[in-house]
C-alpha cells in the first residue's frame, strides 16, 4: 500500500500473510515490509507523471520513462542505468536524478541528455528556473546550469537540507530564497550566481511564522519580488532588494493557502478560502494601492473541494490538485500576459491598443499601474481616464506642467506614496522650497520646520502655513519648536513684488520679500 498526499495511490494484496511493519527508503521511492510468513516484501513507486505544455512524461518502470508529445502523439522511451529517484519538467528541460547520476534533457532533443555524477544519490528536491536548476540532497544545496556546470552552493547557519521542500525554497534567474527551519519568521536570500547572501547579508524577517514562499520569475533583478503566506494565512509581497533601512512588506491577500507565479510573466495566482484569485500585476501595491482590487480576477473555488493545491501556472493555464489526487486545469485570460510583454518592451502604443481592443477595466487598471511604475505619465493619463479616476488624471496633468525634470520625477514618486524618495530627490536638486512645501501639503509640520531651519530659508513660510492650519481648526499652538521660532515673527498673507530673491533654481519658489514679516505665496511652481 502506498499513500501520498492523503489520497489512495495504489493497492496491492501480496500473498505474504499480514504485513507487521513497513519502512520507506530515505529517497521515498522504495518500501520494505516485514511479512507474517517470514518474508520481506519490497515495492517501488512507479507511474509518477510530469506535465509541461505539450509534453507528458510517465515513469513506467524503475529505470524507464515514457515521453509523449500530445500534439503529434510521438513517443520516446528514456532508459536509465539506475533507478529514478526525483524528476522535474519545466522551462523546456527535464531534469532526472538517479541514485548515482543527474540527467538533463532538452525537450527539443530526447536522444542526447547531459549526464554528470552526483556526490550523494539522495536528491530530495529539484527546482527549475529559466536559466538553471537546483538540486538538494543530504549534503547541501547545489545550483547547476542546464549545461551541467556547478554554479554555486549557498549555505547559511544551521542549514538542514532534509526539511526543505517546494514550499520553503524558491528559485528565480538571479535569486534563491530559503525559509529557515530554526526560526520560521526568517527567509534567507542569496544571489543565485555567486551563492552569497543578497545585499547587506541580512535575511528577510517577518513578524510571524511563514508557511510558504515564492519568487517571481521575470523582469529585472532590482525589481525582483517575493510573496509569502504566514501562519495567519495572510499573503504578503515585498521587494527582494532592500531600499533604505526597512523592507516594505505589504499585505495583498487573506485566508491564502496555496500560490504560484506564472512562468513567463509576473502574474500571481492563489487560493483564498473559497476563491481562486489572480493578481494580474501585484506590483500595483507599490504604485497605487487603490488600484489593486481593480487588477484582480476572482472565481469561486468551491468546486475544488477542501485543501486543493496549485501545482503549476504555465502560460495561461493553472493546474490544481484536489485532495483526492485528481488534477483540474483552469484557463485564465491570455491578454494580461501580452500586456506584460508589451510593457517590458516599452511598446506603450501597442499596450493602449490592446486595452482598447479587449475593453476590460482590469486591463486598463493594470496598464495605469504599469505606466506609473515606468514613469510614462502620458499612457497613465489615458489608462486612468478609461477607468474613470478623474482626480488622478488631473494630478497627472499638473505633474506634466511642472517646469523641471526633478520636480516631475519627485511628484511621480509622491503619486506612488514614496514621500522620502521624493523629498530626497528635491533636496539633491536644490529645490528646497518644493521639499518644504511637500511636507506642508502632507501636514508633516515637524519635518517641514526641520528642513527650513537646516537650510535657513522659508522658516516664516512654514510658520505661516502652520498658523493658518491651526486657525482653520480653532486650535492654539502647543508645539514648543514652533512657539520658539514664532517669537518676533508676524505673518502677512500678501505677495510683495519688491526686492525679491530666489533659491538656486528659479523654478523652486515664488519671489520673496526681504522683510522678515512676509511669507511667500506657497504656490507650487
TrEMBL record:
Region (Disordered), start-end ranges: 501-525
Keyword Ribosomal protein: no
Composition-biased stretches (Polar residues): 501-519
Swiss-Prot/TrEMBL GO biological process terms: cilium assembly
GO cellular component, one term: cilium
Cleavable signal peptide: none
SUPFAM superfamilies in UniProt: WD40 repeat-like
UniProtKB keywords: WD repeat
Source species, domain of life: Eukaryota
Domain IFT80 second beta-propeller: residue ranges: 47-335
Keyword field contains Phosphoprotein: no
Pfam families from the UniProt entry: Beta-prop_IFT80_2nd, TPR_IFT80_172
Residues covered by the IFT80/172/WDR35 TPR domain: 363-495
Annotated InterPro entries: Beta-prop_IFT80_2nd, TPR_IFT80_172_dom, WD40_repeat_dom_sf
Name of the protein in its database record: Intraflagellar transport protein 80
